[in-house]
Amino acid sequence: ETVHEDGHRTLDVTTLLSSDGKFASGMYRSDKVSIEIAEPYGVDEFMYFLEGGVTLTSADGTVQTINAGEAVTVPKEWTGTFATDGYTKIWVIYSADGSGL
Hints:
Layout: E1 2-3, E2 9-17, E3 23-37, E4 44-58, E5 63-67, E6 71-74, E7 80-94
Antiparallel strand pairs: 1-2, 2-3, 3-7, 4-5, 4-6, 4-7
């Protein structure tokens, strides 16, 4: 578990990292937080929410809310705000150069 400077807690567990280091999967849990993603997200990530949910507000103003039992894929080029009251998700990430894993 990690406690961040703003006080919110996260837990990140990687369950698989491919031998070439470009594909990974795992589980992530977060407390309430709102994060501005000003630079491109950097990885293609599939997220399936087990508990809680998130609201993604893209830089173009598009708003998408994803709740428990729902999924979303965020492309590496995405920018915007990631806001949550807390969630647990299963994640799958692809990164062509292996960064961000």
